[in-house]
Structure formats: structure tokens, C-alpha cells
Fold:
Amino acid sequence: ALILNVSSTLYFIKKKKFNSIIINYDQASENLFKWYQQLIAESLGKHKKGILPIVSNMPKDNHSVMQLYLDGFENNFFTFFYVKEQKSNKINNNTILSSQNFLKNKNLSEIMYAQKNATENVFKKKDIPFRSFEIYKRNEKTLGELFCFFILETILLGQSMKLNPFDQPAVELIKKETKKILI
Structure:
């Protein structure tokens, strides 16, 4: 899977698709994707090359930027991320309008999972490239596997793009300039 993901990303870059958009359906993973964003941008954003990592948190962004993702610029590729929760709050049936009866007796994770699957179905119909991660057990082992996967993917992308993924020369310029101003 790792080599296939790297190969696909290199293909997208050749096709001028530089925006890597994470469609995150797991609020508890927001910090993971802040780290991912920093990893990708800092490791690969050099010598007029790189990938712009953008994190979209669902369901909020479904009602703000999804229209653009589905029908706007075609310079994006996507990663869906979902963690299957065993337990989540159920919808209060007394507050559901009759037009929304399909929500009765559903819990929030069922609704989010349905929305994720529906969005993936629409992406497939519109031939929009994406990959999908579904996590079944949230624990240290899974988090470690994700960290390793994303780090290895970034190293391989850097090597393939003829970039050193282990430095940040442009950021160092700002650090030096800040120090000069403060001295």
C-alpha cells in the first residue's frame, strides 16, 4: 500500500495536482493531521516543488468547502480518514422532524459513517482521486503505524522528487532574520 500511495502521489504531481486534502471525519485526530500538515509541507516544500496539505474537518467543511472540492479546481487529490467508534450518542428522536425520520434511532457515528460513504460514492461517480483510511481500533499501536506510514511515505516522496525531506532551509532563514532583529 505504501509504494502504491507514493506512486499515485507522484502521478498526481505530474498531472499538476499539488493539493493533498485530508477529509477528516474524526475530531480526535485533528492534532494528528496538524502534524501531518507540518510534515508534508516542511519536508517537501522546497526548490519550487511540494505538496500543499490541507485539512478539512467534517462535518463542518461538508457545508463550506465541499462544493469547491466536488465542482471547482481539479488540482486536488484526497485522503478520507475515519475512525469507527463503538459507542456514540444517539439522536434524540423527540427532536426529529418528520421529514428527517431516517435519522431516528441512529447514533452520531452511524450518521458520520453514512456521510463519509456517500461522499466517497460521489467522488467515485465524479472520478475524483482519493484514498481512504478506516481505523477500527484507536490505540497506541495504530497511531504508531500511522506515524510510520506517513513518515515513510514522505521520505519516499522526497527521494523520488529529488528533495532532502530532512531539512528546512527556508524556515532557517526566518529564524536567522528574527535573531538579527532581536539582537
Notes: The radius of gyration is 19 Å.
